[in-house]
Amino acid sequence: MSLSGAELIARGLAAYGVEHVFAIVSIHNMPLLDAINRLGKTAIIDVRHEQAGTHAADGYARATGRMGVMIGSTGPGTTNTVTGLYEAQFASSPVLVITGQAETAFYGKKLAYVHEAENQVPMLATVTRRVESPRHPEAVGEAFVRVVHDMHLGRRAPGALEIPIDLQYGEVPEQTFPPLPEPVVLPKPGLIEQAADLLRQNGRRIIVAGGGVIAAGAGPMLQALAEKLDAPVITTVDGRGALPEDHPLCVGNFYGSAGIQQGVAGAEVTLAIGTKFAVGVDGNGAKLTPPGKLIHIDIDPNVVGRTHHAHLGITADASTALAGLLGSLTEVSANDAQFNQVVWEARDGVHGAMRKRLGPDYARMMDILREKLPREGLWCRDSTIAAYNFGNQLFPIFEPRTSINPSSGAIGPGLPFALGAVIGSGRPGILINGDGGFMFHATELATAAQYRVPLVVCVFNDCGYGVLRWLQDTRFGRINETDLGKMDFAKMAESMGVPGTRVRSVEEFERAVTGAVAAGGPYLIDVDMECFEPMEISIMPKKKPVEA
Description:
Helix content: 25-40%
CATH architecture of the largest domain: 3-Layer(aba) Sandwich
CATH topology of the largest domain: Rossmann fold
Distance between the termini: 79 Å
Number of domains: 3
Structural class: alpha/beta
Radius of gyration: 24 Å
C-alpha cells in the first residue's frame, strides 16, 4: 500500500498518543492536516496565530505530561512559533513544531519561492534541542522519530521538523514507531547512599522541589520522603503541586522570601530535587545560597551545582532518586522539632503578610476563585500583577500539573496556555490575566468559543502594564509607556462568541465567577481594578481630569 509523507506523520502522531494538535492551515501543510483528519486518531484545534498555537501546545504538554504539537506553515508561520518554542525550552516542555518547506527542487536555489525560508533550520535550532529537515522520501519517518525521541531523552525539550511540500505529497516507505525512551537516568553507584547518610546524620533538613519532580511523576514519593524525614518542603513556581499545599509539611513557593530564608537558615542539609535554581530578576536567586550542605539532584548534569555549589551532586531523574532514598533511609530520626517550628512560624508569617498586602477585596476574590475551582482544576496565569501578588504563591495548589504559568516570565502566553491545558486534560480551568498581556492573544477567544472550552478568563484590568508601572515608579519615581487606556473586554469577548461581563465590586465578582463556572463553557470577567481596594504592590494610572 502506498503511503504519503503526510500520512506517515499522521500515523506517527497517533502512535505517540497525540490526541490533539494545534494548527493554522497553509498551502505548505495542507497534506498533513488532510492526512490527520482522514486517519481520525488526532483532533485538530484551529488557532488564530502560530505563536498562540505553540503556547497552547505547551499548555497541553504541561497539563497532560504528553507531547504537545503545533503545525504551522513555512516562513512567516514558522517565525511566529519561535516565541512559543523559547518559552517551552525555558520550561523543559516537550513541544513539537511541524512545518512545511519549499519543494526540494527549489530549496536553496534563492528563486524567491513562496514562503522561502532557507535559514529556517538554524533559526529553529536556537530554541529547540533538535531540528530535522528530511530531503528524501526515505528520510521523512526517520527524521520524525529522531526528533520525537530526542525531546524525551533526559530533561525534556522542544523539537522541530520541517518537511518539504513535495515530500508531504510524495510516496514514502513504511516506518515503525519505536516506543518513547523511558525518562530514567540512573545515578552513579554509591551517590544515593551518600545522600542518605547526610540526611540520616543531620536533624535539621529542608527539601526544595522543582518541576523535575512533576515531570517524573514523583510527587507521591516526594511526599513519602518528606513524611519519613518530617522535613519542610519548599517548592519552586514550576514545582507547585508536587506536594499538596494543604499538606502540613508544605511551605509552598516561598524560597525567595526573606522571612522563609530566615526561617530555614539553621538547616544543616538542603535536599534539592528537580530544580535548576533559576536566578530570576536582577540575579537575586544567585544570592540565595541554600542553607547547610546542598544535595542537588537533577536529570540534567549541566544543571547540577551550576547556580550554587553542591556538596553532593547527583545526576538522576527525580523518580529514581527518590525511590533510592526511600529504600536507603529505612531508619531515620524525625526532623528537629524546634527547627520545624521556626519554619512553620516563618511560613505562617509570610502567608499572613502577603495576604494583608492584597487588601480585603483581592484577598476575598482569591478565596472565591479557589472555592469555585475544583481541587483538580487548572490554575493558569499570565505574567501580571495579580499573579505576582497572589496567583503564583498564595493561591493553594493541590495536585501536580494544575499550576501553569510562563516559566520565562513572558507576557502574553496565559490565554493560549490555558486553552491547551484545558483541551488536553479535559479539566475546567481558571485564567488570571492582565489587560496588557491579554491583548497579545485576545483573538484566541474565538478558539475558545469554537470548541466550547470550559475556561473562565479573569482579566484584571488596570489599563496598562501594571507590573512594569510599579517597577518604574519604584526605580525611577515616575512611569512611562505603560498606560494603555481602558478596553471593554466583555464586549470584545461577546463579539467573538464568549459571554462576558465587567465587574466593579467583590459581590459582582462572586456572582460572575459562580455563573461562569456553572455555564460550562468559556466566559470572560473584566475586573475593573479602579473600583477595588488596591493591592499594596500596584499603581493605577492617574485619572485624566474631566473637561468641562
